[in-house]
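Q: I'm building a small set of examples for a reading group on sequence design. Run inverse folding on the following structure and report the sequence directly after it, with nothing in between.
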């Protein structure tokens, strides 16, 4: 009788423990799957994050090259290009704006050009450029022009930005000279 009671008690305890063991094994396997998913997601950087890294690099490069210029990022959710560069002389005279769009994708999209042109109109910018890893077809060099928008690889940022900036400063200087010529001519007349 005692042996039967003991066997029944052991069977009941084993039955309860069996479900607890299965429950723990299930929790452990679920945790392992979650950990594997987290590791996989952590190893794959998102496209948005990759793009932001290139954008931050562009912004820091422009700040380093042109300390007199006003360089600011366009906030997320706000219409406009990624970076707005207000070109200034050493004396602080504003010469114009350059809009920079940063794209870090595997394929070129013609829609980028029309969007940047619209941003230029909205922001009253004189020049614009798209920095991209994937150049459009027909441009085999590091720098090209598509419908009035400069397209370049990240390696060409320094030379093109210097040329664009010099262009804006020269045009602003010519406007000032022309205005002074007109004033002198009127006063002589």
């Amino acid at each position: 009788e005692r042996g039967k009671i003991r066997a029944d008690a052991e069977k009941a305890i084993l039955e309860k423990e069996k479900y607890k063991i299965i429950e723990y094994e299930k929790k452990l396997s679920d945790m392992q799957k979650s950990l594997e998913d987290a590791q996989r997601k952590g190893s794959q950087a998102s496209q948005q994050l990759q793009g932001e890294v290139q954008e931050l690099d562009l912004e820091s490069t422009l700040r380093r090259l042109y300390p007199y210029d006003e360089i600011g990022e366009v906030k997320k959710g706000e219409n406009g290009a990624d970076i707005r560069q207000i070109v200034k002389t050493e004396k602080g005279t504003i010469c114009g704006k350059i809009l920079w769009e940063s794209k870090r994708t595997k394929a070129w999209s013609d829609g980028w050009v029309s969007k940047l042109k619209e941003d230029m109109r909205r922001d009253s910018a004189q020049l614009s450029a798209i920095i991209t890893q994937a150049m459009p077809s027909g441009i085999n060099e590091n720098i090209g022009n598509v419908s009035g928008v400069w397209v370049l690889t990240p390696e060409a940022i320094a030379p093109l930005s210097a040329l664009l900036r010099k262009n804006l400063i020269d045009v602003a200087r010519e406007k000032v000279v022309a205005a002074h010529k007109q004033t002198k001519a009127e006063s002589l007349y």
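Helices lie at 2-43, 47-65, 111-123, 157-188.
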